[in-house]
Design goal:
Layout lengths: L16 H11 L12 H8 L4 H10 L8 H11 L11 H36 L7 H8 L19 H15 L1 H16 L1
Helix pairs in contact: 1-2, 4-5, 7-8
């Protein structure tokens, strides 16, 4: 190699045509259908940037590069599956494919378990769901009297007896003024005991 054969351009020196082509291919790697008959030492700089899916697609379209991409597959394996090592006769490409298949299978089984758990949870929620059983209860919720905090009324309902209305008034009084209710109740109890 000559000392003047530097691939990095200086200010006055333009980029080499191969560098421009490699850079263009790197940017458009996702649409590259095959590498054709380009020698591997030229296309390797482009294939280094390829994802495993892109590399697999390019290898299926250009089978002449399959034997020479082992170093690229090794890089992908060590990056994506660092805890696994291939057995001796298996190539790095086959090892990557096997690990990817195992990961997909594990992910799908976990997804299936989650779906089953969700269905069980929805079934449990359906069991505990509150259901209106009476038509009058439905009209109670639909027809509200006007004003803030007013009691709901049902059309056609029977008027309450005097004893029931007195108990309701006492309960409302107790809710707003507990001490007053206690005094009223205490006076009533005293008057009854005399």
């Amino acid at each position: 190699m000559d000392e003047y054969e530097d691939t990095t351009p200086t200010v006055n020196q333009p980029r080499r045509l191969t560098d421009l082509c490699v850079r263009s291919l790197e940017r458009r790697l996702h649409v590259l259908p095959s590498v054709g008959k380009v020698p591997f030492h030229l296309i390797k700089r482009v294939l280094i940037k390829a994802t495993p899916v892109q590399l697999e697609k390019l290898e299926s379209a250009s089978p002449q590069i399959i034997g020479e991409t082992e170093s690229l597959w090794r890089t992908h394996c060590l990056r994506d599956f660092p805890s696994t090592q291939p057995s001796k006769p298996v190539t790095w490409r086959d090892h990557y494919m096997r690990c990817r298949h195992d990961r997909k299978k594990a992910t799908s089984s976990i997804g299936e378990k989650l779906r089953k758990m969700k269905e069980i949870g929805e079934a449990e929620r359906e069991k505990r769901k509150a259901v209106l059983l009476d038509a009058t209860a439905a009209t109670l919720t639909k027809k509200r009297s006007k004003g803030w905090g007013a009691a709901a009324t049902i059309s056609g309902a029977k008027k309450e007896s005097g004893l029931l209305s007195k108990a309701r008034k006492d309960a409302q009084l107790a809710a707003t003024r507990p001490l007053a209710f206690f005094l009223v109740s205490y006076r009533q109890a005293c008057s009854l005991s005399l």
